[in-house]
Amino acid sequence: MKGSDVTTYTTRFHELAKLVPHLVTPEQNRVDRYVWGLSPVIRGNVTATDPKTLQEAVNLANRLTDNTKIIHVLVELNRFRGRGTEKYEKRRENVKNAQVQYSSYLAFASFQIWRRQIRQR
């Protein structure tokens, strides 16, 4: 299967299954052959759920494909916003470093104040 068009793949699978029914006679063989033709991105997830019927495998493949499409859209949107880029990560790291330095400064300053209070007693 090329791309993420599960419906086209499913239709073609049913057409071919009618031509050679002896290859997909037991339901488990049919499910295994269907799963084997799926995109590697979702094949592992479908295999992990161990669907018992072809309809379960088809439904799961459709849901997973929809989820991967949504994830790809979100990744592209974040990339468009500048997130996930090297520049964004560097800026984020700089902010973290500044926060750590500031918190260290606050800890040191409060320690100095505490020390003065102890000496004055």
TrEMBL record:
InterPro entries associated with the record: Ty3_capsid
Which superkingdom heads the taxonomic lineage of this protein's source?
Answer: Eukaryota
Q: Where is the Ty3 transposon capsid-like protein domain?
A: 6-69
Q: What is this protein called?
A: Ty3 transposon capsid-like protein domain-containing protein
- Tell me what organism the protein belongs to: Centaurea solstitialis (yellow star-thistle)
